[in-house]
Structure formats: structure tokens, C-alpha cells
Amino acid sequence: MEPTVVGVDIAKRVFQLHWIVSDTGAVFDRQLRRSQFLEHFANRERCLIGMEACGGSQHWARRLIELGHEVKLMPGKHVKAFVTGNKNDVADARAIWAAANHPGVRAVPVKTEAQQAVLALHRIRQQLVIFRRSQSNCLRGLLGEYGEVMGVGRAAMNRAMPDVLSRLDSRLPRVLIDSLREQWQRLVDIDKQIAAIEQRLRTWLRENPACRTIAEIPGVGFLTATAAVASMGDPKAFRSGREFAAWLGLVPAQFGTGGKVRLLGISKRGDRYLRTLMIHGARSVMKHAKDPGSWAVQLCMRRPLNVVVVAMANKIARTIWALLAHGRSYSASYPPPLTAT
Q: Which parts of the sequence belong to the Transposase IS110-like N-terminal domain (predicted)?
């Protein structure tokens, strides 16, 4: 017997449910408070529960799986296509139910708490990097108002800041000089926080066999390795390396009509952060590629550099999937050369 499909629109305090009983065709729309949600499903037979992949959905998915249910998390933009009429909680729950029944809507992997913890470290680090860049630009802009222009890059700024502040000390009010020193010190503090997070990620890489395996791939550093393993979840959820690369948005988007298909730029679907790491890693590989007979160098002779970089990132993504899905170790000479018999 097929499990009953239940569409759930989750929120902070109120959860909207929608399901149809297959035997009788009865339609149910029910609203539950947060404290009633797990209790409701604890008393039900096994269900297929569809939810949008949004804030808190991973937590509820894990809890529902512990109760013996099957959970299908779906991207919000795929669910949006099933919303008809006015948007409200009831309409959203019905759209989620319809999307969960549709075979063409791909599910988002349900992550473990450990995997989510690693991704949380990546998000905190990414936020600190944004803060550092904003802080640095603000400090440069303020000093530029007084004729002090420094060289490009953080190293040039660190070398110039002591002399800049000493020159301005006699011209500007003391309260501003003290504030500028505090802003500069804040950059140093952010650097220390980022370094501490990176050290924790390196520790997790050393303790995780999957991370150590894919870290051997050229172009995959500790950031890409930890983010890829944590984001992918179960690698066997993808049927092939091409499907994993498509999930990351590293394949061409298509526009077709009347039997004619035109390939566009990369689709940019999926996790933007992980895709960015892949492309930066591929760019590093291209920068150090010296073998004139290699695939990348040969491709550079007939295609633009950025196209080759994305193709290399696609190849890295496929390699990551192959190693994790088949439990293999990286070998630069794979496949082995054929020997004459």
C-alpha cells in the first residue's frame, strides 16, 4: 500500500497540513501549532511528507524520519509553480502536496546534524569575509577623504596604516583617530575569527574519510572538500556525476522550442557558494597547468579561458561524485593505460 502524501507548510509557530485519503477521496486541510506537530505524526501510519527546503526544514525532516516517515524536501522555486490563486498557508500546503506527488520535482538531500554543523561554519566564515571586505572598504573610503590613498590589497593596507595614522594624528581630532584605530583593530580581530574557523574545518577534514579522499583531487582544498561532503549528503542519491554537476548548476541552460534546442550559459542552479568554490579551484588548476598534452591545455587552444574553467569545474564535480559514490581513491593516471598482450 502506497503511503499517504502529506503537504506541510512550515513556519515558526503554525504548521499547515494538506492530504487526501486515497480510499475515500476525502480532502483534509488542518492547521497545527508547533507543539502539536510531531505528536500528530507520531500517531499516524507511515506517510510521505513533502516540505519546502527552507529554514528549519532539515530539523523537522530528521525528526519525522526518526518517527518512521519518509520526507521529501523540495526547492521553493519548484513548489511555487504549483501555487494557484491567492497565496496563503492553505494554498501553499496544497502546492507542496502537488509538488510532492509530481515525479519531476527533485528532492533536496536531508542532512545530518554533523553535516549541517559544517555548513554552518562555512556560512559564518562567509559572513565574516563579507564583514572584513566591507570594513576594509569603509576604512579606505574614510581615509581617502583626507588625501590618504593606499595600495591595492590587504598587505599594502597593513604596511601603510601606521604611517597614515601618524600623519593624520596632528591634523584631525583625537576622537576620529581613536575610532580609525578601532576600525583597523576590528579587521585584525575578524582575521583571527576567520583563521579559527578555518582551523576547525581542517580538523574536520582530517577526521572525515570522505573529505580526505576528495581533497586529493587537484583544485579541491579544505573549503571545497568539507562543503561538498556536507552539501551532498548521500552521494548515491545522484544517479551519475553529470547529475551532481547539474545539481550544482555547472551545465548549460537550455532554451528549446519546435524541436530546436539552444544551449546558453551555465544554469547557475543549486548551491551558489559551493559552485563558486568549484570554479575558483578549477581556475587554480588552469593557472598551474603546464603539460601541453593535457586535456585542459588542449581545450584552451580552441575555447575561451572562462569556458574552460567552468568545464574543469564540471570535471572536478564529476570526479568528486565518482570517488564518493564508488568508494574509490583519487588516481591521476585513471583510467590505467592499456598494456599490450
A: 6-146
